[in-house]
Amino acid sequence: MTQTLLDTVFKAVDDKRAEDIVVLNMQGISLLSDYFLICSGGSERQVQAIAREVKEQAEKAGYDVKRMEGFDAGRWVLVDAGDVVAHIFHKDERSYYNLERLWGDAPETFVAADSND
């Protein structure tokens, strides 16, 4: 079930043309979630559109989005869907926070985008 949620979130960010999508496997590293999906948008409006799409597609697939933080500013939006947490950064903020380095002990996971679109 977690893999299906991860696929749903990945497809949602990919559909909105998110950049530099990275998925970190947090199992055994963090109690917060099984996966962190980290991506970037080129503007506040794109960051908000990506976050909105993640929320809508997760809920459409039957998952509960527990919270969404940072949406109004559009600089770093966190979408918490339980087993998958999406971190959607404005491209200028991503390198500053550098979550990939902060969680450097988490292995990166490959998720294939659906090629049927």
Describe what you observe in this structure.
With 117 residues, the protein is of the alpha+beta class. It has one domain: Beta Polymerase, domain 2 (2-Layer Sandwich). Helix content is 36%, strand content 26%. It contains 4 helices and 6 strands, in the order αββαβββααβ. The protein has helices at 2-15, 44-60, 91-97, 99-102; strands at 19-25, 35-41, 67-69, 76-80, 84-90, 108-109. The two termini are 22 Å apart.
Topology:
Elements: H1 2-15, E1 19-25, E2 35-41, H2 44-60, E3 67-69, E4 76-80, E5 84-90, H3 91-97, H4 99-102, E6 108-109
Parallel strand pairs: 2-5
Antiparallel strand pairs: 1-2, 1-6, 3-4, 4-5
Helix pairs in contact: 1-2
Notable features of this structure?
117 residues, 6 strands, single chain, Beta Polymerase, domain 2, alpha+beta
Helix/strand structural class = alpha+beta
Number of helices in the DSSP assignment: 4
Shape call: globular
Classified in CATH, the superfamily is Beta Polymerase, domain 2
Please compute the radius of gyration using only Cα atoms. Answer: 13 Å
CATH topology: Beta Polymerase, domain 2
Largest sheet: spatial strand order: 3-4-5-2-1-6
Unreliable sequence segments = none
Report the portion of residues in β strands. 25-35%
Q: State the domain count.
A: 1
Please identify the top-level CATH class.
Alpha Beta
